[in-house]
Design goal:
The chain has two domains: 49 residues, Arc Repressor Mutant, subunit A; 139 residues, Orthogonal Bundle (Tetracycline Repressor, domain 2). Helix content is 78%, strand content 0%. By secondary structure, the chain is mainly alpha-helical. α1 packs across α7, α2 crosses α3 and α4 packs across α7.
């Protein structure tokens, strides 16, 4: 038997169980015993992977941040049409927002942030770093003369906020279903066109 693969499976089972338990019961009411039971492993196995509940929660947050890595990878290309690039950028963001596991992670993080504001401050700071990919794209487009003078960070939040209003907050807070493909495409196109109507040079 491949012990490495078995260890990886146990690791994922523990993380999945923790997400489920944190989401159902909150951080404080979730015990390592309950996580172990839900994961189908021993409590000792849980501690072999994560030394504490805080470490396990920190790992979940790291997965949330890592999920947005694709937004970091997209770079502005001066030889490509601005609108097509913006649609690609927002499409990448939307793919993240429709991912069920990402939404579960977000629910856990947001719920914990509400109950413990000090955790929320750290989460917001780290999330802002991850959203820098969009701001960097906007900064490059502005430097290329394709956008009017703007604050890239403010404009990034403005642009992404249009997507989140329809495709993140209703799903995370009210349990609404993710958007259908046609509605998703219309939202992306409308958000891009509104943005460009105001900011395009």
């Amino acid at each position: 038997m491949d012990t490495t693969r078995l260890t990886d499976r146990k690791h994922q089972a523990i993380v999945g169980a923790a997400v489920a338990e944190f989401r159902a019961n909150g951080f404080d009411a979730t015990s390592m015993d309950k996580i172990a039971a839900t994961a189908g492993v021993s409590k000792r196995t849980v501690y072999n992977h994560f030394p504490s509940k805080d470490a396990l929660f920190a790992h979940i947050l790291q997965q949330l941040w890592d999920s947005s890595a694709a937004l970091q990878a997209l770079r502005y290309r001066a030889d490509q049409p601005l609108r097509a690039q913006l649609l690609e950028l927002m499409g990448t963001k939307m793919a993240l927002l429709r991912d069920g596991y990402f939404l579960d992670l977000a629910r856990v993080a947001i719920a914990e942030g509400i109950h413990h504001p000090e955790r929320a401050q750290e989460m917001v700071a780290r999330l802002a770093d991850k959203e820098e990919g969009v701001a960097a794209w906007l900064r490059a487009a502005q430097a290329d003369g394709k956008l009017k003078p703007l604050d890239p960070v403010f404009a990034s939040h403005l642009l992404q906020g249009q997507l989140k209003a329809f495709a993140f907050w209703p799903q995370v807070t009210m349990g609404q279903p993710v958007l259908e493909p046609a509605a998703e495409a219309a939202l992306i196109a409308t958000a891009a066109d509104i943005f460009l109507a105001y900011y395009a040079a």
